Amino acid sequence: MNQSRFWVVGGEYTSTDFETLIKGTERIAGPFDSRGDAERTWRALSEDYRPLARVRFTIAQEPPAALNA
Questions:
Q1: Predicted TM-score of the model (pTM)
Q2: pLDDT, tens only, 21-63
Q3: What is the rounded CA–CA span in Å between residue 43 and residue 61?
Q4: Runs of H (alpha helix) within the chain
Q5: Burial level of 10, CB count in 10 A (0-12/13-18/19+)?
Q6: Domain 5-68 CATH assignment equals 3.40.50
């Protein structure tokens, strides 16, 4: 059985509405085989950018390959 993979995605947005990323600030980390690994990276990135109110990261889960068939 195939497992999901996890990605950490985000960057700097044009406002604190977090709707539009500023081009060139996008960051993608992964894939991670476990949510725990993704969470550790998410925490580190979030802490690095803590002083910047318009920067946000989130964890995205990729569906198992079997669901894509």
A1: 0.83
A2: 999 999 999 999 999 999 999 999 999 999 999 999 999 998 8
A3: 16
A4: 35-48, 65-68
A5: buried
A6: no
